[in-house]
Amino acid sequence: MIDKLKNKVSDEAVERLLPEHLSYLFEDKPLLWNESEEEYDALTGAIFAELDPQGVIETLLAKDIVDYIWEIRRMRSLRVAAFHAELPGAAEELMEDRSQALLRTLYPSQIRPLVRGAVAGLEVQSKGLASQMREAHVTPQMMQYEALKAGLNVMTAIEASIIRLERRRDQLLKDLRERRQAFKAMAKGLMERDAAEVVEAAVERRN
């Protein structure tokens, strides 16, 4: 991981990221099977270039910030997927009358495959769904409303997870800023003390 960061961060920054015996921490990537390691590494490089962590503690904070940003991205995608998952049922509910609903016990619905294909961006299914919606006098907004109503509990839970992750990310950013401010204040105090000691020593020499 550290080697891969060299494309995004200066060599000097890479060398001070972590001691060699702690470099394994960068191999712990919160990736699912369908997620891109290249995209994760690119995000890590961009965040490290922006935050420019100094020392082990700041580096670990920056790594956690990257991971929270990645998880937020995943949960936002999951929120969209949850909405899409409800669309076939919503379309079926709106576009089939009661007699057709009874027939579903004998014959599979044709609405669900059309919606799934349209969600996947397939042209034939998208045109077929649009035609069915016109015939049934169903608008996209009506279908979206039914999908939201059906999946509201799941989507609300996902949204709550996103909010929690965003708060943790923001807290880490705050911790990083406060840590740097504390070090600046400490460095300033030491400089002022050293300057006062130099002045005091000079006065004593004169006397």
Question: Can you characterise this structure?
Answer:
The protein has 207 residues and is an all-alpha fold. It has one domain (2-168). Helices cover 77% and strands 0% of the residues. Residues 10-14 have low confidence and may be disordered.
Topology:
Elements: H1 2-5, H2 11-15, H3 37-51, H4 55-95, H5 98-103, H6 111-119, H7 123-136, H8 140-150, H9 152-206
Helix pairs in contact: 3-4, 4-6, 4-8, 4-9, 6-7
Which overall shape is indicated by the principal axes computed on the Cα atoms?
elongated
Weakly predicted, low-confidence segments: 10-14
Output mean pLDDT.
Answer: 82
Number of domains: 1
- Biggest sheet, open or closed, and with what strands and sense? none
Distance between the termini: 61 Å
Total number of helices: 9
Task: Give a quick rundown of the structure.
The chain is mostly helical and 207 residues long. It has helices at residues 2-5, 11-15, 37-51, 55-95, 98-103, 111-119, 123-136, 140-150, 152-206.
Tags for this model:
207 residues, mainly alpha, 77% helix, elongated
